[in-house]
Structure formats: structure tokens, C-alpha cells
Amino acid sequence: MASAFGHLAVAYALGQTIRPEWRSARFWWLTVACCLLPDADVIGLMLGIPYEHVLGHRGLTHSLFFAVIVGVLMPRLAIPDVALGSRAYGAFAVFFACVTMSHPIMDAMTDGGLGIAFFAPFDSHRYFFPWRPITVSPIGITPFFSKWGLGVLWTELLWIGVPVCVWLAGICVQRRVSK
Ligand SMILES: [Zn+2]
What we know:
Structural class: mainly alpha
Distance between the termini: 39 Å
Strand content: under 5%
Bound molecules: zinc ion
Order of helices and strands: HHHHHH
Largest sheet: none
């Protein structure tokens, strides 16, 4: 996986595309939950499910299918007033699916572990992108405080932090221009 910092930075950047009046504390908590949720599959590792299993790490919870399910369910939790089937509901469903999907997309750019089962449960093949500049993050907190962890932070600063800053600057410029 990329580190939690990388996933959170991208979720924050995506959240800035939503109009300020919709960005409640509840919205942010659920945005954070969506970007980290795919790694709930590490529970499976602890329960003895093999990494390469479709329910193993980077399996079903890292798939497009899972992101769509999360996207469809989240708007009701995030904004209780939004009407089921409305345009706003659809827009939030796309948003939460994108935030959830940002996680496996970043994982597929890491240089370690097994690939991502993007198309599970229909195809359990694991995929990486051809370009993988991000150092894979260790699983667990203790191993993160090491030379390995520092390497992860450095590559994420470069390959996630810089694009996120450019993205946020673009949003700022766009808001100023449209005022
Ligand atoms: Zn992951």
C-alpha cells in the first residue's frame, strides 16, 4: 500500500472539488473512511486468508466493484437530506467511488507486494501499472518508523504531495476566476 498519509492527501484534494456548503464534518469523516477502507482486508491476513486470495490483501476491497458499491451507499450516510436517485445523489456516489478507487490506483503505483485485483470478483488477476514510482509502505505502524518508512514518505512527497499541491492550486485559481 501507499501510506495512510498518501491516501489521506489525495482524499483531501478530491474533497476540495465539492462545494464548501456540502463539506460537513460527517462528509470529511466518510471521505477519510472511503480512502482507507480498502485496507480493511488486512484483517483477512490476520485471520489467515492468503494474500493472493480474492479476499486477501489487495483483493476484492481494492476492486472497481467494491468502489462502486461504496459509492452507491455513502451519499445517504454523508448527506442524509440528499434524495435517493437525484442528480446530487449520483454526483456524490461518483465522488465517493472515486475516493475509494484512489486507494487501489495509488497501490498499483507502488513497487512491492502483489498487484491489485482491480476486476474482482469477476477476474482475480492482480495488476500493477507499468510506472511504479512509490515505495511500498510497510504493513503496521512500528516498521514505518525506519529507513524504509522515510523512503516511503520521500517518494510520496514527490509523486503524491507535488501533484496534490498543483491540484489544490488549480482549484484555488479556478475559484478566484469564477468569482
Ligand atoms: Zn491498499
